[in-house]
Amino acid sequence: MSSYLEATARQRVAALISDFTEFLPPAKEWTSPHLPQLNAPVSFDDGVIIGRGTIDGKQVYVAAQEGGFMGGAVGEVHGAKLVGLMRAAVIHKPQALVLLAESGGVRLHEANAGLIAVSEVMRALLAVRAAGIPVIVVIGGSNGCFGGMGIVSRCANVIIMSEEARLAMSGPEVIETANGVEEFDSRDRALVWRTTGGKHRYLLGDCKMLVADDDAAFKAAIVQGMQDSIQSEVALSLAALEAEQEMLTARLQDFGNKTDPMDIWAAMGVEHPEDIAMLDTQVFLQLTASIRQTERQHG
């Protein structure tokens, strides 16, 4: 068993992708033009690897964000590489586009350039889907996926997470800074994982698959996600947007007055919500399947 959480972006690509060819490899040294002006360190790949390869014999285009460089934050060059990869995918039509996401959001050092980059990534991702190419996002790094990249991820066809992964719009520190520790204590790690972690996201339906922190498990889930996409509508449609809006409206009505994820889990039918954090991934998935079956029977 090889931990996805502990791996670098390049190690993740090596573990998941066969016959990988990198676009703009290290020798090209595509670095940020903004960071040197702030006496900040640069990275030879600006914190993201892009290229093509195969998974289960099927061609995929791949991007992997490096959480070890500025938390995977998106700057101008970082974003341009993602957009370029997605535009190339629209032209060459791979079986899927896979994004190994690990990012705190926009790189604040680059201000508006970073914000514009994230908006361009979002638009490019939707263009990939419009071309009939499924987008699969994998989240399992220690930095989680927040801010602009959290929004980008929710634009994908499939999100795959581990229990250790985190996904949200605003990070814990951002919420605490804006609204105070009474609203959200970012030092309460149990609260952070209850609120943004993989299990909570899976229970709410924000991620399609939850897997153990293992390269092989993530790879199998990507293959399954590609197969599932064949049977479903890939492009984003008005009907899908309306269904998403209905789901979010119902979620707000059902859980809007809850102050802790455990209260939400209890309202969903989990008999012992305090035990969720300690459940093995497989046991948790079995419990979730049972809850959803009960909902269908009474729905």
Automatic annotation (TrEMBL):
Residue ranges annotated for the CoA carboxyltransferase N-terminal domain, each copy included: 1-234
Transferase among keywords: yes
The keyword Ion transport appears for this protein: no
Cited PROSITE patterns: COA_CT_NTER
Domain of life: Bacteria
Pfam family, one: Carboxyl_trans
Name recorded for this polypeptide: Biotin-independent malonate decarboxylase subunit beta
Organism: Undibacterium umbellatum
Lineage: Bacteria, Pseudomonadati, Pseudomonadota, Betaproteobacteria, Burkholderiales
